[in-house]
Specification:
The complex is a heterodimer.
Chain A: E1 4-7, E2 10-14, E3 19-25, E4 31-37, E5 43-49, E6 55-58, E7 61-65, E8 71-76, E9 85-92, E10 100-102, E11 106-111
Parallel strand pairs in A: 2-11
Antiparallel strand pairs in A: 1-3, 3-8, 4-5, 4-9, 6-7, 7-8, 9-10, 9-11
Chain B: E1 4-7, E2 10-13, E3 19-25, E4 31-38, E5 42-51, E6 54-57, E7 64-70, E8 73-78, E9 87-94, E10 108-109, E11 113-117
Classes of the chains: A mainly beta, B mainly beta.
Chain lengths: 112, 118
């Protein structure tokens, strides 16, 4: 089974609506990375969380890491068509020397 | 100019052919990675290199080999391509970890190579 589970696998929201994507690890994390991928393109780094309970925001995107450092959520407020793409979480585990294990991704579509 | 470049961007080949995918970076990073992306499986690590003399297998290295020609170049080869190696391949780079709390290793990705093996 996947060490890193993302949900939902896909999401269709109307422009202006809020949405949340979840990433759950079976093991405690050293760091959790969020990336966005536009269809057929490379990954763009969004933010990284490392401390239990940490929360970071960039424009309309907020990511949180729970206290146990096993679950993270990515919340988008007032979604726009530019938010469409695939969101991936990547986990860095202690002792893995910067190797990342990625989730399967969440495909987001934003309708007008 | 892009910091991480991959060539070719698209490639169609036949079963049994030898294929090389190339990655170059201008970020000055020591660490380089090769991933493949398949629908529903996310990104999986094929090989990674922490410096020119350090090459390591990832979770799915069978059927692949790599060469780190210089700090800036990391090539992935498919010795004898097979159809289930059809995928989107990404190269990534990162800087050396400082090891202290608060440091992290953001990976910078290339645009990807779409490989189709017929």
């Amino acid at each position: 089974s996947q060490e890193l589970e993302q949900s939902p696998q896909s999401l269709i929201v109307q422009e202006g609506k809020n949405l949340t994507i979840n990433c759950t690890s079976s093991k405690t994390l050293y760091g959790l990375y969020w990336y966005k991928q536009k269809y057929g393109e490379g990954l763009i780094f969004l933010m990284m969380l490392q401390k239990g309970g940490e929360e970071k925001s960039h424009e309309k995107i907020t990511a949180k890491l729970d206290e146990k450092k096993q679950q993270s959520s990515l919340h988008i407020t007032a979604s726009q068509p530019s938010h469409a793409g695939i969101y991936l979480c990547g986990a860095e585990r202690t002792g893995t020397a910067s190797k990342l294990t990625f989730g399967t991704g969440t495909r987001l579509q934003v309708t007008l | 100019d892009a910091d991480v470049t991959q060539t070719p961007r698209n490639r169609i080949t036949k079963t049994g052919k030898r294929i090389m995918l190339e990655c170059s970076q201008t970020k000055g990073h020591d660490r380089m990675y090769w991933y493949r992306q398949d629908p529903g499986l996310g990104l999986r690590l094929i090989y990674y290199s922490f410096d020119v003399k350090d090459i390591n297998k990832g979770e799915i290295s069978d059927g692949y080999s790599v060469s780190r020609q210089a700090q800036a170049k990391f090539s992935l080869s498919l010795e004898s391509a097979i159809p289930n190696q059809t995928a989107l391949y990404f190269c990534a780079t990162s800087d050396r970890a400082s090891g202290s709390v608060g440091s992290y290793n953001e990976q910078f990705f290339g645009p990807g190579t779409r490989l189709t093996v017929l």
